[in-house]
Amino acid sequence: MGARRKTTTTLPQELVEEILLKLPYSSLIIARSVCKAWKAAADSSSVKSRYRDSGRFFADANSITDSSDKRIRWAPRGDYPDVLCAVSSEDQRCVLARSTQQRKLFLGNPFLNVWQEIPYKVFGDWSRACILRNKIVVWCTDGMLFTWTQGDEGWSNIESPVADDSESDSETEFVLKPVVSGNKLFCLDSLRYPNLVEFDTTSNSFSYTENVLPNGEDNYLAGAWKSKLYVGTVIASERKVQILELERERGVVLRLTETTYFSYDMDAGTWDKQMHWAAAAPVNIVLH
After folding, report:
1. Are strands 219-225 and 240-245 parallel, antiparallel or unpaired?
2. A biological process (GO) annotation for this entry (predicted)?
3. Which of 69, 132, 155, 207 is the most buried (most CB within 10 A)?
4. Residues 6+ apart with CB under 8 A from 273
């Protein structure tokens, strides 16, 4: 009796692609090593153009977590960029980086290891950088802004009008980090609370709004959520937290009585006290 012939069944590539599109990023990496057919499907333009996953970006650890909370780390070697800080505010997939061996800056996608070199610049705090669709803005604590736009050969500097009127050169103007909402940046004037400075990245112009917040609060934290600008204020003496919307009527959105917290989910209306990770930025994982 002759030996039985071993047969294999290969799934249609269209079905393999649909399976791959549903995997978190860490599982997609593993799936590429299943066989040549799966690797070909993962590398196809069809999968690369449609693949999406969500995660968090950790600049200090050069790593991300995908939607399954699996941590993926890349170790820069030689001239590979070493990620600095910012995630782009619009598509959440470009980061700012620098070479580990040379005085170079890069803008790119760490998941593809594709980088664009941009003009080099030294800043004291790169975490104050904001990446927009075709522009990078660094809003320094002294009120000075540095901008770079796609196609420019160098950086431009713009001094905010508030910095000219500073009563004290020894104090910083903008301790809180800038917030991006649409094509505008917002920052609270830390010397003259509760005033708000707005920078329009399209016209490179400033506007200044006074008394956007009630006096007497101890701490402020600004943030953008669903195209709206909010500021959280902590009233330590009353052990209360207020979240205020700064657009339209600038009314109080929430009054809360919890001071031991890490984050507040405005959709669920609950505090999240389970801090499993260091501070991270949300990121969309795409392959194109």
Report:
1. unpaired
2. SCF-dependent proteasomal ubiquitin-dependent protein catabolic process
3. 132
4. 260, 261, 262
